[in-house]
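User: quick one, fold this
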Amino acid sequence: MPANKSTVLNGDTTQVIIDYDIVIQRKPVYYLLTFILPCFMITTISIVGVFSPFNDVGDREEKVTMGLTTLLTMTLVLTLIADKMPKSSEGLSLLGTYVLLQIVIAAVTTLISVVIMYQSRSWAFGKPNYFGNGDGFDIFARAKSGRTAILKEIQFTFHHVIERLYEKCEEKNLRKSDEQRLVNSLFSDYNKNLRPVLETADVVNVILSPALFSIVGTDEALESITIVVWLNMVCFTWYMRWTDSFLQWNSTEFGGLNELLIPVSKIWYPDITVSNMIDVEMPISDEKNYAIINDKGAIHISVSQILTMQCSFHIIMFPFDIQNCTLEAASWMFYPDKVDVSYSNNIDMTAFHPNSEWDLISIFARKSMDFSEHHKVTWGSVYYDIIIQRKPIYYLLTFVLPCFMITTISIVGIFAPFNDLGDREEKVTMGLTTLLPMTVIFTFIADEMPKSSEGLPLLGIYISLQIGIASLTSLSAVMIMHLSRQWNFGKPVPAWISTVMQLKLQEHNSPLKEVKTADDFKEHYTQQERLVKKIFENYNKKVRPTADTADVINVTLNPALYSIVRTDEVAESITIVQYFRMTWKDAFLTWELNEFGGMEQLYIPISEIWYPDLTVVNTINIKEPISEERNFAFINYDGIVSAEINQILTMHCVFDITMFPFDIQNCTMAVISWGYNENRLNIFVTIPTDTYLYKNSSEWDLISMTARKAKDEYEFETAFVYVHYDILIQRKPIYYLLTFVLPSFIITTIGIIGIFAPFNDLGYREEKVPMGLTTLLTMIVVLTLIADKMPKSSVGLPLLGNALQLLNPSYRSN
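Assistant:
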């Protein structure tokens, strides 16, 4: 585990980074026994079977089916391997390359089998040998294929910051006593819960400058992206830098000390939050992270975050797509007149680590001031547009190439001019066998994509086209057999059969202040500090804040739904992001305006005050990205308190899948006070509920969110108040129509036409049985994939599942 040391210039400071290269080696025996040995045996048997010197027509035609079955098996194995590998632009892994080579061998042997049947038929009718003097097949037999495999050693580098170094000052004779005296002087009366301004009307200006470290991964199905960023902030105006008016000093009074290092947990710092985040991890806690403070009060901190945020993926051009994932940063509680957030033009990319699936094209910053007509306030946000482009090589080798080879073999085999009955009847089975792997691959791709109403991605369209080609060739084989039978009885061939339709794919390309500081440090209390000291002098946050014990606290509840992150029909759960808003009156947090210079409002961390214990009772999991210490409550002089809690909530939701994928679901969120009955705490709801901030989902449409109130009474106690929020959502069906219904309809139609075609020969009638079984196998695979996504309900199959069963000719025949 070797170590490397490097330095990174971060603003005015230099950070030391130590990289530990952890080199590991995989034990290959599991993969040798699970993948390589079975693939080798299957391919060997296929080659032996194809090149065995059989002369009967039935033996020769069986070789084609053998080859296509081998191709199907290898393609499924390759898909399973690819599903576990990173989507790297380096190409396939060594194991994937081996399986792909087996696919090529199977394809070549199958093609040779078709050529052999065609040539033997030509000899049987006295036609000349198109391969010269009979040496053509010797050339095929002596052909050698090989490929030199190069296995690159993969190194996983784990980076973390060990410690922050800074220059204490140009002179090296600092005495520890000066630093200690300075800390005692600055923090003796310092309150980290107050905005660091000398006047209430002053604005704290914050500059953001994120440094993108890496793209951890993307989840197209959940429409999320995970990144690692270093957020830097500067106060005045993530590295964050600002001026704290209470943390200034005269350096000459402290031995020339002009810079100080203090834990972030000890000072006030801006509550900058990513509004569209789903999850966030802080590898370095506030207690372990340090802020650099100079004698002018300018503060600089760096906050490391592993951030998962929402990102709407537009997958029309997949896998040649370019995505724009926007990071929205803003102060959680303060309006721009209190904390003004801006951005630096310099975005640090020096420490960025490339991703195996995505190329980072650019990052752009922009600021927006939006006035909300609904809330009558102005919001200030900084947006970072992260433009990324997918590396397509993985998908080309894993999906496009195998599909192309299978379809090509199928077309060559079906349109080869064979005259024997067995040769012609084999074509139908060949076509249906081709449809099965195409449908399976198509389902694998669809499972990784968001259930968007935009339509199929480019790769999905390509495979759908391959399915269409295979369907047309199978239908052509059925028609050829039928017309051949008519021709044998003297009936003419229709003129329209000679028409050739050509399909062509078009490649679409997406266009693609000046810092305000106090001149003189004020050592006396500000009005804000005096107010906080007075009202919290005897305050107890564990006591219900009423003047009389018999009084009831009335809480107004107004949750704002921000987004639907995901639904899990199998687990019967829904995950949402919401802003849980509450308003109530605290009789102990009131003051007279004239005693405190007319100050009307105060911001205090909710961890310092009493607040209602409202709980979602049907929750499965809940995350609050902003801790109580970092979340602020808005307190008015008359005791009215407003709090807003950011919640990522997973709750139970019973899905009625009878009409899937045209279903409408009602997910109910039940809210109750956990400890107080209605005589102590009563809940009021805001009507209508707030959906102003809601971000649209790619799979679901939000129809409505309504509130209703109920009581739960007990024999020995008074009633508890419940508030139920009914979230009514409707599924967008286009994804399932294109992914399941259309391919199933095409396959079943081909099967029905082939089974009910009026053929009289024994060979034609016998061919109907494997045709029906192949169709049945495809339908069972598709039905299993659908059932895997549905809850194990006693209601029965969903509408789509019933449709698949009804479309199955074998099912109907029973």
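User: anything notable?
Assistant: The first helix runs from residue 29 to 51.
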